[in-house]
Amino acid sequence: MKEGFLTTHVLDIYSGKPGSNIKVDLYNITKKRKKIITVILNKEGRSSKPLTLGKNFNKGKYELVFHIGNYYKKKSKISKKIPFLDEVVIRFGISNNKEHYHIPLLVSPWSYSTYRGS
After folding, report:
1. How much is the pTM?
2. Domains of the chain, with CATH numbers?
């Protein structure tokens, strides 16, 4: 039986480099919002292991929260004022828990984009 899993990564399109040291929270929001894990992305902008997998990777609705405002404040590339983007929230569904779901985030201090990657 093949086990599915969830991964993510961040690309800072403002600098053209991976988004390292970004805090990311994963929630299951199918019934009640429940935090699954908090990770800090590594120097490649990825988590060290899947965010969730196997028997803990269920069909349902999920939410990834990327703490982008803190990331750019630490990089000192934008002013210390209230950031335009603070927390980037991506809500998505898992319809087949036997597959690999990859949620990349392309981000700058003023915009973001995502898609289902591979």
Report:
1. 0.93
2. 5-113 (2.60.40.180)
